[in-house]
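Support request from a user on the community tier.

User writes: "When I paste my structure tokens into the form, the page sometimes reloads and wipes my input. The last time it worked, I copied everything first. Here is what I submitted, just in case something in the input itself triggers the reload:"
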């Protein structure tokens, strides 16, 4: 249904025409094939890039202008609120089950769309994860969709940018901040920075893992990603996650390692801080360094997880923790030939890891870097 309390159409002597509807109200608009075919080619390409699925409701102002005869493009201006009731939109990744609205003011000059707006969603699902209270600026300019702050992407960190200038959401009781530059076209490409502040591991466990056992901690992290389309094999990036304080006993991977080391539950409680440095490439999440530190035991590791089936390949090296002997620096480890250390090789899946002990290898340069203490320097985009 479409209605307008005031719709004005005029045609000038020179053939220029104008149509303006305000206030305009459209309920249950199907933005599918028929709707898209009615749009000018350039504007249609933008709409098709988002691939909106499901009916929406529009309200606000819409104005169209053109010239009768001749090869003149139709131009448009709008100030519209779009209401979503469970829709799906493509924006680098699929945004599913969208509930909320966007408010957009924009123009179409016959060649390009330029628009500024505000996203306000009560909830949306991304990669299977539920986000709530999603709010922030959104802009379309010269074939690019900008979510949040472009400055954050250019600078590499967000310390000088207020949350109000970014796209933020509530996730596992923390704040998720997203800044993205998405290049629209036949095959989207994008640059994204995602940061999580003060998320709760116990809430993640409740929602997305078994919801049982002892698994808790405060999560802070950041990841930079670039990609094309929706093929994860073309996804590249790097990131860091820090869990502190941490209680990781009932994580299947940790349980398996503790069993093979014959450590008890009390030893697991010692893992009170965890840091993961990783990169993404060729369909893998590659962990350059995993540091699990505690009072009675510590683990250092590296390896990868295959995104398609969650297959894992890890190597860990165990050492005494802070309470027994302070972690020595690398040259002392080399001199002592890693006395008292144990190597653990892990294959299988995240839910079903299969560890086995192995001799400690000679300390190569990569392993020396791995055995460093926690790195608190800001993560830089690579």
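"...and here is what came back when it finally went through:"
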């Amino acid at each position: 249904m479409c209605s307008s309390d005031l719709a004005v159409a005029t045609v000038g002597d020179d053939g220029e025409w104008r149509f303006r509807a305000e206030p305009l109200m459209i309920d249950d608009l199907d933005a599918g094939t028929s709707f898209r075919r009615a749009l000018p080619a350039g504007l249609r390409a933008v709409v098709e890039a988002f691939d909106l699925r499901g009916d929406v409701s529009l309200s606000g102002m819409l104005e169209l202008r053109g010239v009768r005869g001749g090869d003149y493009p139709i131009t448009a201006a709008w100030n519209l609120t779009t209401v979503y009731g469970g829709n799906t939109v493509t924006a680098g990744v699929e945004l599913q089950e969208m509930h909320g609205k966007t408010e957009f003011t924009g123009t179409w000059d016959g060649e390009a769309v330029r628009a500024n707006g505000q996203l306000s969603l009560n909830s949306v699902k991304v990669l299977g994860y539920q986000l709530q209270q999603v709010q922030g600026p959104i802009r379309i300019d010269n074939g690019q969709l900008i979510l949040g702050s472009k400055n954050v992407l250019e600078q590499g960190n967000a310390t000088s940018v207020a949350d109000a200038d970014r796209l933020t959401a509530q996730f596992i009781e923390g704040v998720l901040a997203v800044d993205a530059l998405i290049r629209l076209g036949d095959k989207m490409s994008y640059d994204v920075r995602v940061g999580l502040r003060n998320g709760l591991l116990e809430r993640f466990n409740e929602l997305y893992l078994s919801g049982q056992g002892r698994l808790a901690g405060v999560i802070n992290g950041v990841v930079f990603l670039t990609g094309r389309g929706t093929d994860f094999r073309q996804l590249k990036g790097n990131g860091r996650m820090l869990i502190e304080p941490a209680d990781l006993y009932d994580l299947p991977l940790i349980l398996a390692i503790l069993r093979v080391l014959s450590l008890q539950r009390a030893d697991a409680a010692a893992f009170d801080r965890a840091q993961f440095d990783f990169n993404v490439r060729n369909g893998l999440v590659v962990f350059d360094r995993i540091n699990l530190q505690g009072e009675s035991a510590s683990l250092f590791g590296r390896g990868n997880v295959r995104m398609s089936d969650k297959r894992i390949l890890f190597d860990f090296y165990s050492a005494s923790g802070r309470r027994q002997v302070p972690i020595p620096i690398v040259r002392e480890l080399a001199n002592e030939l890693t006395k008292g250390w144990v190597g653990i090789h892990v294959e299988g899946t995240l839910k079903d890891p299969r560890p086995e002990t192995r001799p400690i290898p000679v300390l190569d340069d990569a392993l020396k870097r791995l055995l460093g203490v926690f790195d608190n320097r800001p993560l830089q985009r690579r």
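Agent notes: The reload is a front-end session timeout and is unrelated to the input. The mean pLDDT is 83. The longest strand covers residues 75-91. Escalated to web team.
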